[in-house]
Design goal:
Radius of gyration: 13 Å
Structural class: alpha+beta
Number of strands: 5
Strand order of the largest sheet: 1-5-4-3-2
CATH class: Alpha Beta
Shape: globular
Distance between the termini: 30 Å
Helix content: 25-40%
Strand content: 25-35%
């Protein structure tokens, strides 16, 4: 199934300015075969966090909603760190 992405323009500009994340990077992280998804426990709605490596080697944490599949509504994206990053490398290295 093909998927698509939408991102509120104002929110995208904010994420781009604050975290330096480009739209194409987010899209490429969804193609990472080592990436993983986990529920976003910081909110009370159906949101997910994808942790994946971009085509340029940057590991991002991407918060999104999949309520309109095959369209994913992107909420924010930033460099993965801490537990999210540790879990990514554990999974990638088969630990």
């Amino acid at each position: 199934m093909d998927i698509g992405f939408i991102w509120d323009e104002d929110k995208y500009q904010e994420v781009q300015s604050k975290h330096g994340v480009q739209f194409y990077e987010v899209v490429s992280a969804f193609d990472d075969p080592n990436g993983y998804e986990t529920p976003d426990s910081t909110v009370h709605e159906d949101r997910w966090v994808l942790v994946g490596m971009t085509a340029s080697g940057r590991v991002l944490a991407i918060v999104f909603s999949d309520e309109d599949v095959p369209i994913y509504r992107l909420i924010t994206a930033f460099d993965a760190e801490g537990k999210l990053l540790d879990e990514y490398y554990k999974r990638r290295n088969g630990i």
